[in-house]
Amino acid sequence: MRRFLIETWxxxxxxxxxxKMAGILGPLGYEATADVNRADLILLNTCSVREKAAEKxxxxxxxxxxxxxxxxxxxxxxxxxxAQLEGETIFRRAPYVDLVMSTAARxxxxxxxxxxxxxxxxxxxxxxxxxxxxxxxCRSAQEILAEVRDLVARGYPEIEFLGQNVNAxxxxxxxxxxxxxxxxxxxxxxxLRFTTSHPGHLDHRTMDAMRDVPSVCNHLHLPAQSGSxxxxxxxxxxxxxERYLQKISxxxxxxxxxxxxxxxxxxxxxxxxxxxxxxxxxxxxxEFDQVYxxxxxxxxxxxxxxxxxxxxxxxxxxxxxxxxxxxxxIQLRRNTALVGRSFEILLDGRPPKEGPGVRGRTTCNRIVHxxxxxxxxxxFLTVRITRAHAHSLSGEPLLGSRAA
Length: 404
Ligand code: 5AD
Ligand code: SF4
Description:
The protein has helices spanning 12-25, 53-70, 81-86, 88-93, 129-133, 141-153, 176-184, 204-212, 229-234, 241-254, 273-286, 313-336, and strands at residues 2-8, 30-32, 41-46, 75-80, 99-101, 111-115, 117-118, 137-138, 158-162, 170-171, 174-175, 191-195, 219-221, 259-266, 290-295, 342-347, 358-361, 367-370, 380-388, 393-397. By secondary structure, the protein is α/β, with parallel strands linked by helices.
């Protein structure tokens, strides 16, 4: 067994990314360790929000250098915002670093992330976050709104509120829905998003804010984790499949063209063929627009890690593959239905993979590639969809439709 250690700096987005990376490393034969001396892979998930962030990273790398001398097989990786900003400078200044990865969802773009709360008071049995991040602590609305004003002034038209259980946000009389309503009134705020929502905590006030507040986007990330009530109980998720579906259906009725994404864990200890079939049927019932699927991996210290009926790795991988295949087909079908329609996209300045052009996102969080030299990053462009793919769309600008 190889061991990994992820050091997470900065915001909730990084915590989220680190969780995802840990989720990927588990099935690859890595287990988490808190002991830097025993790690075979050390990943610094960096943040550039604070002052002198890069210097702090280089200073940490300097400390790790000695370990690399003792163990030449040790892999040191840097990702997150500092990696994004410093890029090759990291290799130049710290040549013993093996990998530098920018974090695709972050960095320079039109979307800014604002952590509204840290920690999580839930106790999902598979999850390490309550141990690593502690109890919920919410920032005041005043502080959050000041940050939003500042970000908008610095040219970010889109703001995403972050919290592990963002629906639980409350400070004094403020809650998530009031935060959304107050932020909407700030001049220059064009799009508002929030993540991660817990299906049990998502209340009608928040759902109605999604319906009523103009800048709140018609996309919701709502991790279901499983479609089986038995597994949801074992995970201590605190909702049933039926309650989950009720919220989806309320939102579909009230928020025009809302898109949903979700997280799914396959291969939770004791997951039977029937349980798995229930998850597949949930995916078919809801038809999510995007699914992040993970093979369950035991996190030391969690309740689930002590369960004795773990599934074989091969079975987990088989179930994961089948989720991905089914979902790919669903996404392609849903995206194909959008061909011919027009959307306003917010350009993010990154070139599409295929050839010259630009890309941006719709309010429903779909990526649209526009094969034209038509853009200034962080501006809006209205496009007509010409082609659909499973994970993105292609479009063409509608002439005379530029809106800054
Ligand atoms: N095994 C697999 N996936 C996990 N996640 C969290 N903990 C685990 C685990 N032990 C997934 C969940 C969560 C996402 C961020 O990571 O689906 O929503
Ligand atoms: Fe983990 Fe559950 Fe809290 Fe999400 S809600 S961070 S899965 S304990």
